[in-house]
Amino acid sequence: MNQREAPVVIIGGGIVGSSIAWFLAQRGVKALLLEKSTPGFEASSRAAGGVRAQCRDTTDERKLAMASIEVWKTLAEATGTDVEYTQGGTLRLAATDDRLAELTAQSHEELADGLEVEMWDEAELYRRKPFLAPGFIGAKYCATDGVANPRLVTPAIAAAAARLGAEVWEETEVIGIDRADGRITGVRARNAQGEWSIAAPKVVHAAGPWTPQLSTDLGFEIPIVPSRTIIGRTEPLPRLFTEFISSHDAGVYARPDARGCIHIGAVGRSIGDFEEVTEADVRTYLEKRSNLIPALGEAEIEEVWWGTLAMTPDRTPILGVVEGLDGYYLASGFSGHGFALGPGVGKVMSELILDGEPSVSLDGFSLARFGEDVQFGKGRIQGTG
Ligand SMILES: Cc1cc2nc3c(=O)[nH]c(=O)nc-3n(C[C@H](O)[C@H](O)[C@H](O)COP(=O)(O)OP(=O)(O)OC[C@H]3O[C@@H](n4cnc5c(N)ncnc54)[C@H](O)[C@@H]3O)c2cc1C
């Protein structure tokens, strides 16, 4: 077996793991990032690219998203790659009184947290966006939200980390996490060179929906389940809007990219676990697109793809240390909105790892919030290894 050492091992080179490696490298800590495919190959490059702070489930997540947007603003310059980040705004539509009341209540919390949002009534909405399908009764708008190109972002961050001394091993699958006496001792991995035993005092588990597979060996359950979701892209169209527009009521979202293509995805609809998507799933998805913008029903769809989300029971990520296992850090379970959070999580997790104290509170993201039954579902941390 090949032997190695690293100050920090990161499992998973999605936007989250890559961003953590990048921020650690900026502080002189050369982590070893292990990715079973290539950086960003999974959800991180398949996302719709929405970078929003509005409509977050909790205040803690809102603050994390706002901190992340500060990182996004300088990401292109800092990585040396134009990741097509623009702040074109987000528009969240309501088609029912309940939805409108929910958005209105949320707007008060957002304004109190310093996030500039506006409520638009029906007349205002259709005055500004006459191309929308009928039936919406209002919307919440946030001008500082935006989009970036997911196919560019994670490779750019991983490359920036590597330039600063992080080691990025592609096509390397972690097959086990080792511990002894209540603390992490390293990981085992395999790649084309064979099997590896990598000693490390700190391991960051950022493997998205695959995270529970390895943590079971550690003796605790992580409540993350995979969920596949479909997205597609039209041919380039005359520019109609700049915002990321979404409606939970219509079950669909749309946003323009730098070429003028509209990316259209399904909101709140999961098509199961790691199984392949069927033609029927794609047909159902395509039928929905005119629910939001009738003109999109006519547009040719150039490409359809899908990715796997890592869902937690409360749709909020799991971030931070795990009580009872020193040196083990979780950064996973982003439940369909981790692209926006990724760069900010990289910064905050690097602070937690290096200083013990992050600049944004991670209190609301602990694994412990799910209670002992879930956290230690197999009877607390087991074994002696
Ligand atoms: C269609 C779609 C649209 C989306 N739209 C948005 C959006 O608009 N805005 C937004 O904020 N979010 C969006 N998301 C969600 C977002 O993509 C994810 O929340 C985010 O990418 C999660 O990043 P991650 O790094 O945690 O996970 P991932 O990108 O899943 O990365 C995990 C990585 O770990 C690797 N890995 C797993 N197991 C191992 C192992 N044993 N050894 C080595 N490597 C391993 C995987 O190969 C993978 O690369 C969307 C997702 C999809 C699928």
Describe the structure.
The structure is a single chain. This protein is of the alpha/beta class. The chain has two domains: 2-47 and 151-218 and 314-375, FAD/NAD(P)-binding domain (3-Layer(bba) Sandwich), CATH 3.50.50; 87-147 and 226-310, D-Amino Acid Oxidase, subunit A, domain 2 (D-Amino Acid Oxidase, Chain A, domain 2). Helix content is 29%, strand content 26%. It has eleven helices and 20 strands. The protein has helices at residues 15-26, 43-46, 59-73, 75-79, 97-112, 122-128, 150-163, 211-218, 279-287, 338-355, 372-375, and strands at 2-5, 9-11, 32-34, 50-51, 90-94, 118-121, 138-142, 146-147, 167-169, 173-180, 183-191, 194-199, 203-205, 225-234, 244-247, 252-256, 262-266, 301-311, 318-321, 328-332. The chain has an eight-stranded mixed beta sheet with strand order 6-7-5-15-16-17-14-18. A hairpin with a 5-residue loop joins strand 16 and strand 17. It is globular. Mean pLDDT is 92; it is low at 375-385. Flavin-adenine dinucleotide is lined by residues 11-17, 34-37, 41-44, 46-50, 173-174, 206-208, 210, 214, 229, 231, 265, 307, 309, 332, 334, 336-340, 342.
A few lines on this structure:
The protein has 385 residues and is α/β, with parallel strands linked by helices. The chain has two domains: 2-47 and 151-218 and 314-375, FAD/NAD(P)-binding domain (3-Layer(bba) Sandwich); 87-147 and 226-310, D-Amino Acid Oxidase, subunit A, domain 2 (D-Amino Acid Oxidase, Chain A, domain 2, 2-Layer Sandwich). It has helices spanning 15-26, 43-46, 59-73, 75-79, 97-112, 122-128, 150-163, 211-218, 279-287, 338-355, 372-375, and strands spanning 2-5, 9-11, 32-34, 50-51, 90-94, 118-121, 138-142, 146-147, 167-169, 173-180, 183-191, 194-199, 203-205, 225-234, 244-247, 252-256, 262-266, 301-311, 318-321, 328-332.
